[in-house]
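Quick log. Single chain, no ligands specified.
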Amino acid sequence: ENTMKKLIVLAAAALLAAGANAAYKDGSYTGEGQGKSGPVKVQVTVKAGKIASVKVLEQKETPMIFKGAEAGVIPAIVKANGTKGVATVSGATLSSKGIIAATNAALAKAK
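-> predicted structure:
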């Protein structure tokens, strides 16, 4: 019986933790963040309450460096359904931070 109570408590805690990872309102949202060379603008698409995609609309970064940031950060944001715990790409830290900040700005509109 005690084991059952523990399982119920753990299940409830897991549900709360899953809920904390925010369900967003479906739609497309734009946001802007600061990269190394200027603003980075992204469009975040939310489907079924989760981030389906993050697309860069505008940026003024060095192309090769930005591609590295984009390739590392965007899949991590989609997988995490947010930016919490998403690491910046080494050698492209400011570009990575620009993408993350822009995504956060877009997600603020999706709550």
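The two ends are 40 Å apart (CA to CA).
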